[in-house]
Design goal:
About 80% of the residues lie in helices and about 0% in strands. It is mainly alpha-helical. The protein is rod-shaped.
Length: about 80
């Protein structure tokens, strides 16, 4: 890709995606804490906890892929 302006805009947008992923990850962790019983450390709803784990994995995967794309764009801008 040769359009430097477009690559800069993509990097900016990918940075925003990364921030959103971090924010979403923090919110999921807060929900997970609420799902754990303070009395005995057990999960209050196993099904919901499993879904949240799946969501957490998807956000981590999205973050990894967006970082890979950012690296590719950054490398292209150097060349």
């Amino acid at each position: 890709m040769e359009d430097l302006s477009a690559m800069k805009n993509m990097l900016r947008d990918l940075s925003e995606i990364d921030k959103n992923n971090e924010n979403n990850f923090d919110h999921i962790n807060s929900i997970v804490l609420l799902l754990n019983s303070s009395e005995n450390g057990r999960v209050k709803d196993k099904g919901l906890s499993e879904k949240l784990s799946m969501l957490k994995e998807k956000i981590q995967e999205t973050s990894k892929i967006s970082n890979e794309i950012s690296c590719i764009l950054s490398d292209n801008m150097k060349n």
